[in-house]
Amino acid sequence: MNTPLDRLKNLTSKISGYEVARKENLGILRTLYTLLKIDDKVECFDDIFLFKAINLSGISLKEEEVGKAKEGKYLQILAILYDKKASIKSKNISLGYFGRVEAVEKKLRENIVEFVLRWRFEKSFKTLEHYHDMIKYIKRDI
Q: Which residues contact 108 (CB under 8 A, 6 or more apart)?
């Protein structure tokens, strides 16, 4: 039977596992940020998390075909910046253009896919932290 203590131990184990994975993820993400020369476009590493999203053109990120090149397309890392004060709210920014996808070496394609997935992993934690903080402002009368 699952006692409250067992459930707490299980939850603690999961949380510490996520924190270890997150720390490792950030280290690798920082390396890829430099390796892919994204630091040429975004000087401060932490500023990459100001983007609402980072997407790829030329390579699939669908779970069933992740990393599959789309022949005839151009490989590019695209970031979406959202400015609620601007007349045009969202803006696409190229973080890296690599040419026709079939001409890009396999290892570089793998690094690009890994960068985007690792960025999304960390961004999800930052989003979670943001909403956790936002909930503190809600007063419940129920």
A: 98
